[in-house]
């Protein structure tokens, strides 16, 4: 059993530790710019592929498919951070970095929050890249600047929740090789949503699952805030998408943040 040094730090010390560890993650990104750039450009490739290769077959009521797609891809960009988080956590664990943190006088909160905050900052960059891509392909947000800020807030709220899912799975899987299994989780969650097509076009129970997908709630809410086209549905989830976009990340955070902290403390036991 690995021992750790207990520490009850004042709030100021905890904030300083969090900022230090956030900076550590950001400095590591500077050392591998190729992987960061590829991660940012992958959603752009998906926009081009779905928008121009498949977009002609997509029928969107009262609008253009690209206007429907971009908000969905903004939500998908928040989900893609989950895979990167799992890989980063498992890599640090395999290299012994996490174990060194465990024996240092640093709070668990600071260690985990540092990762989460850095990933949310990455989400801001991903949002900017996707918005720029959307504007270049003809997408236009029509809801005004206040609505755009609200949309950004909902997207980053979802990203924040997904960071805790990623941290928990990273500590659970422990090795980078095992992290590949997370793709089995990410892609079904992404495609079984309203990011690309309306749930109403799917078979009954699949459409119901897609409608209540947390990703669908945020994608639909963002479309509403940007005044972009959505689908003609009158179910509760669609009509209260902003409410759901607030609730789902809160539920995910309440579940996975404590699980991530417990899994971290259990490493080496």
Automatic annotation (TrEMBL):
Residue stretches making up the ABC transmembrane type-2 domain: 34-267
InterPro entries from the UniProt entry: ABC2_TM, ABC2_TM_bact-type, ABC_2_transport, Nod_factor_ABC_transporter
Residue stretches spanning the membrane: 34-56, 68-90, 120-140, 146-171, 178-198, 242-261
Gene Ontology molecular functions: ABC-type transporter activity
Gene Ontology CC terms: ATP-binding cassette (ABC) transporter complex
Compartments reported by the entry: Cell membrane; Membrane
PROSITE patterns: ABC_TM2
Matching PANTHER family: NODULATION PROTEIN J
Protein name per Swiss-Prot or TrEMBL: Transport permease protein
Organism: Lipingzhangella halophila
